[in-house]
Design goal:
By secondary structure, this protein is of the alpha/beta class. It has helices at 3-24, 32-43, 49-85, 89-103, 106-111, 117-127, 132-156, 158-171, 173-202, 208-216, 229-234, 271-281, 294-300, and strands at residues 222-225, 237-239, 242-244, 261-264, 288-290, 305-307, 310-311, 320-321. The termini are far apart.
């Protein structure tokens, strides 16, 4: 028996709980190696599988409950925080919004298996008005499925996992150093990508005050709301004069070259809108700019919004909008 195996037998449940809890809080430290190890130890009778599943479910439910109540009382700020700490902020929030609003609470059953979605789903459930007792029940079922699948894989491949643990023990700390180096390099690369993207657009962004001044002066900038249809079902308002276009359809739009074009989303870092602006700038459009702070910054200044009743038909020249009484 290797020292690593003995350590897992003695402290496995504690580290399993801690690893799952930390991962569900959104820290990018994967828990699946511990779940696989717990399954492998269960196969050899060195760990109680019921206790392993119990620790997994408890860790998930505790972490998710924290995010749920943060979403209930600080919804917008929580999504803003997730945008700032996530390596793929907009795509993470957007995917979860699409899954949750399309499948409802059933989306919680699969969110545990997708990194990033597991952290965003609980606050979105709270923002959608899901009662805590219903959330808790579905979340516990999803957490149990998550634990069963990964520990089950560890159980099924216990021989191979024990061999891997033995090899790692023989190699020693060098292996962990290499893995840590790869992880740090990946995180650093993603962070550098984000910063380069934002720096490229920093001087081109327009503030909500500047946009409002243009509207008050009688200018008619083309404003695109890039949020998903599912997100607009939860928050059915747009900036006054804005037209909604799905993010995956914006590149097919025919853009005017003689008017300012403003694009915005809901993430404070405007990652999605920045990417769209860069795409069109590289095609020669010099008057396209992302809106600093997105729709949240617009609301904070109490600028006017319109109900979302927008139909997009092909391009800017054929956009038809039906606007009821503005707020």
């Amino acid at each position: 028996m290797t020292g690593t195996t003995q350590f897992l037998i003695s402290h496995g449940l504690t580290f399993l709980f801690a690893a799952v809890f930390v991962e569900q809080l959104g820290i990018p430290l994967p828990a699946f190696p511990w779940l696989l190890a717990a399954g492998a130890l269960s196969a050899t009778g060195k760990m109680n599988p019921c206790l392993a599943l119990g620790a997994t479910v408890l860790a998930c439910v505790l972490a998710d409950s924290i995010w749920f109540f943060l979403g209930r009382y600080r919804g917008t700020q929580v999504l803003g925080l997730l945008c700032r700490i996530s390596l793929e902020p907009d795509s993470c929030v957007r995917r979860t919004q699409n899954v949750f609003t399309r499948y409802g609470l059933r989306g919680l059953l699969v969110s545990k298996f997708v990194p990033g979605l597991n952290t965003v789903a609980p606050p979105l459930a709270a923002m959608a008005g899901v009662p805590f007792n219903r959330f808790l029940l579905v979340d516990a079922i999803g957490s149990l499925l998550y634990g069963i699948v990964l520990t089950g894989l560890g159980y099924a491949f216990s021989d191979q996992i024990e061999q891997l643990v033995a090899v790692i023990s023989q190699i020693g700390g060098q292996t962990l150093t290499v893995f840590a180096g790869f992880a740090a390099a990946y995180i650093g690369w993603k962070y550098w990508q984000r910063q380069r993207l934002l720096n490229e657009l920093r001087t081109a962004r327009i503030t909500v005050a500047e946009l409002r001044q243009k509207q008050d002066a009688g200018e008619q900038p083309v404003i695109f709301d890039l949020r998903s249809h599912e997100e607009l079902k939860i928050d059915p308002t747009v900036i006054r004069g804005a037209v909604h276009v799905e993010l995956d359809q914006i590149e097919q739009q025919v853009m005017p070259r003689d008017r300012d074009i403003i694009v915005y989303c809901s993430c404070p870092n405007e990652i999605s809108s920045a990417r769209v602006a860069i795409f069109f700038q590289r095609k020669g459009f010099t008057r396209i700019r992302p809106l600093l702070g997105g729709i949240d910054a617009w609301r904070q200044q109490d600028y006017p919004t319109d109900p979302y009743v927008v139909t997009v038909a092909g391009n800017v020249n054929s956009i038809s909008t039906t606007i009821s009484s503005p707020r």
